[in-house]
Specification:
Layout: E1 11-13, H1 18-22, E2 38-42, E3 48-53, E4 62-67, E5 70-75, H2 80-83, E6 94-100, E7 111-115, E8 118-123
Antiparallel strand pairs: 1-6, 2-3, 3-8, 4-5, 5-6, 7-8
């Protein structure tokens, strides 16, 4: 008998349906929809990985915050004075929030790297300690 193993990330993008409720019948799509490009997957070790393409940003521009069961990645827009010259990439601010609905991820133990314009968060599964069974006394 063959078993199929389906693995999916435990993280869900918080603003998944936000655009629908703002404008359920958009006539013209914005060219920046989905900015920044984000990929969420489970790696071979079973860890959840969030990757964002952030060309033109430096690691000082990016803030990653973990609170309760959410991860928020944000960056403020650069002004023309900050850029030094007129640029067409990496000048838009963004804020993306991801929620661990299953509460099975160790968000505080996440590893964040930023190399060659790629932000990568590797989030391990939460290891729950197995406790010995205990007989409760009836009063």
């Amino acid at each position: 008998m063959t078993r199929t193993l389906i693995r999916h990330p435990g993280l869900i993008l918080d603003d998944l349906f936000a655009d629908f409720f703002k404008d359920p019948f958009p006539v013209i799509k914005r060219s920046t929809e989905g900015y920044p490009v984000t990929d969420i997957y489970v790696n071979d070790d079973g860890d959840n990985v969030i990757e964002m393409a952030l060309a033109g940003f430096s690691k000082e521009d990016i803030k990653v915050e973990v609170k309760d069961n959410t991860v928020t990645i944000r960056c403020n827009a650069k002004t023309k004075e900050d850029a030094g010259k007129q640029r067409r990439i990496a000048t838009r601010a963004f804020c993306k929030t991801f929620i661990d609905y299953y509460n099975k991820l160790d968000l505080m133990g996440a590893n964040v790297t930023f190399e060659n314009g790629l932000l990568s968060l590797t989030i391990p599964l939460l290891i729950l300690k197995v406790k010995e069974p205990k007989l409760l006394e009836i009063k």
